[in-house]
Amino acid sequence: MSSNLKAEFAPKVAIIGRPNVGKSTLFNIVTNTRKAVVKDQAGVTRDIMIEPVEVWGKQFDLIDTGGITDAADVFSKLIKEQVKDFLQTVDLIVAVMDGRAGLVPEDRDIIRVAKQTGKPFLLVINKVDKVTEEEIAKSDFYEFGVDIISASFEQRRGVGDILEWVTNQIPENPGTVKEGMNIAIVGKPNVGKSSICNCILGVNRMLVSDIAGTTIDSVDSPFIYNDRKYTLVDTAGLRRSAKREEDLEIISAFKSQESIRRADLVLLMVDGTIGPTDQDARIMQSILEDHKGVILVANKSDLGGKEIPEYRKTFKEQVERVFHFFPDVHVVFTSAKTGYGINDLFEMIEKVTDQLSFRVSTAELNDFFFETIRKAPAPVWGTTNVKFYYVTQTYQKPPAFIAFANHPDGVTNSYRRFLIKNIKAKWDLHGMPIRIFCMKSRRGSND
Fold this sequence. Notes:
alpha/beta, 6-stranded mixed sheet, 13 helices
């Protein structure tokens, strides 16, 4: 199993169920990660997590969802609404139940929700710790007439059967070509996101107001520019968690993060008269963690140019300081009020679109790679030099690469930065959040 490779249009497999039935444990086992928080406490997973997986030659996106419950608190209501909506976009559903608790009323609701989607779904009875208890655990659920597998995730039992069911449902050539690019506009409240959206679309589709927090939901607007198809997503403003006191603002933050996840490219808007702040840095980190292409949009630059001496130089110096972890981010200066910089923005969007789709042959990549690693001393693992065998590009966007070595743990972050810097320079990928994964090579098992 590998979580590094991603099919262009991979089927989506959602794991659903009540809180604390083992959804996140299954997610972590299959993806071979610890991304989903596992804790013996209801409601720990409040977000939807997506991770690309390859199993037995079939690629799919595995999705961990928040626990569905009838509790009255705002998060429980939000999670239930979010998951029900999200299931309309997936291809397969794995519904996890608790074998120790047996069938409970909330399970009936979950099965009903899964059936209503019309998507193939599997019922997994977890926490069946003894093989002799399998039939008893299943008996409560036979009435629903669906595929049932008993499992014990703690013992890793039943996981292979679940994966066999999933891969059998996935065709050899899944999906169809997706047209266009999703562009999400994010940023703090009142930086001009809706105004720039209206400016791009040429119509007043978004509600524009000076009151922070006017945009509550995310709104999708398809359009065409230079014969390329795009979908623009305007989102609610993102604030620090401590300031999200009202239920409405909590929901807005969830929907903004969801928009980032399903975007191909994110426009991070900041107020050009203020410049990027620590909160913008946190938003940028969130975008990079989701591995998205990003353009920094300095809005209100008409005012910035009048009020601030050497405005662009000052702004870019601030970018290098605040975004020290990603200093070469693309920057475009705009004014939603006057339309200034909109053409520049689209030129940058087209450039980044091409960068996101960059592909290089393994042969060309390795010629460059071995020429590059000669420029610096090899990293060291213990007393042994790290030896690289070959490197290949994954199917992820933005571009990502896997380097196979004898001691991948010896490849330090500084050495990765050295490799990434050279990759960006070679293929004009500046401003891309490039990733390099290092894996153990079988050839180096005896090194």
